[in-house]
Amino acid sequence: MENQLDLVKKTSQYIKRSITLKIISVGILILLLLIPASMVKGLIRERQQRRDTVVREISQKWGDSQTITGPFLTVPFKTYYKDDRGKTRFNLKYLHFLPETLDISGDMTPEVRYRSLFEAVLYNTRLTFNGNFKLPPASQLNVEPKNILWNKACLSLGITDMRGIREKIVLAFNGVEYNANPGLKTTDLAGAGVSTLVQPLSAQASNAFSFDLNLNGSEQIDLIPVGETTTVRMTSPWPSPSFNGAFLPVTREVSKEGFTADWKVLHLNRNFPQFWQGSKYKVTPSAFGLELIMTADIYQKSTRLAKYAVMFLVFTFFAFFFSEIINKRRIHPIQYLLVGMAILIFYTLVLSLSEYIPFNLAYILSAGSVTLLVSGYAWAIISNSKFALTIAGILSILYCYLFIVLQLEDYALILGSVGLLVILALVMYVTRKIDWYEVEAVAREDGK
């Protein structure tokens, strides 16, 4: 019985002092801490989804992201057929004509609206449209000229969210002004918009048009290049636009005072012609425009932060592990676990604080708090001020390094890779003279 107790005691001492088993246990703890780390990422996604929901609610009352299609002419024509009784009947189909020239110029006035902790970027834009239609010869239409109802021609403008229209739209066509009415003849080119009957319409006339559009929207605006030559000029005091879509501006100027952007798109740049029947072609893939982005997206930055959680756990745990070897003072797995939880609290602390104060300040306060907490705990369990200062230095370097990576988005990958290589090289340099077999042997002897 006494021999068995001695064996149990020796085994317990070996487990307590074995370096190999300690490395394995630390690795298992890191894997276990990945569970709360993934929960932190889930919390960030949840808050981001909540933000997106609030932004949608604000946008629905003001005006959603807008896509403007047109203007374009829609002309009905008759196609005849015989029914089951042999009687001649007809269906109405539609010809769509796009402008020869289309010039759009406008100003965007942005506005940030707040609800609770969240903010949404809204805008009001005043656009001026000018251009003309050049009708093709009747022989190119593949329709009997007598079946075309030119007196029913409609000038149409597609607008995705009609709630954003702020003023009456007066369309000037061939010198005559028309009040636009809600609704389109067909949804072949756009799902919603305004239109009006126009006359006269002929192949000989210039068919010039002009009108102004006062429109509310949120975050993004897109335009469809329906002109044979489409030119667009947009200006705004917003300092951080994101130009996107099928075409980028040919020239742009962006500064802290705002931006100016010019586009020029030819009909050869897109995949639809100047006229066709029905819904044969889709125009939305050719949309281009801009988005008013918020540069301080705290949820995007928090997500990027959480990706480095494993790195912080590994380097902090290994600092404690080397302290065990150097100071010959054993640290219990529970103490490792508490340190790991403190490291993970940093990410939730940054997220919660950044919803009330600027992100950089939230980052500094969170990093400072966690560094003081972990280094103070290290001093308490090891009773070695040098070790506590070393832990504080390691965490300070890691948090500074991560802060720099966040600021340099374009170089984040290369900076992260080089930084990890440098840290690994330093660890290898510091531990180059440690004889791990001897350390293991000493631990085994101590356990006897």
UniProtKB/TrEMBL annotation:
Keyword Translocase attributed: no
Pfam families the UniProt entry points to: CreD
Domain of life: Bacteria
Keyword Hydrolase: no
Keywords: Membrane, Transmembrane, Transmembrane helix
Cellular component, GO, one term: plasma membrane
Full protein name: Cell envelope integrity protein CreD
Species of the source: Syntrophotalea acetylenivorans
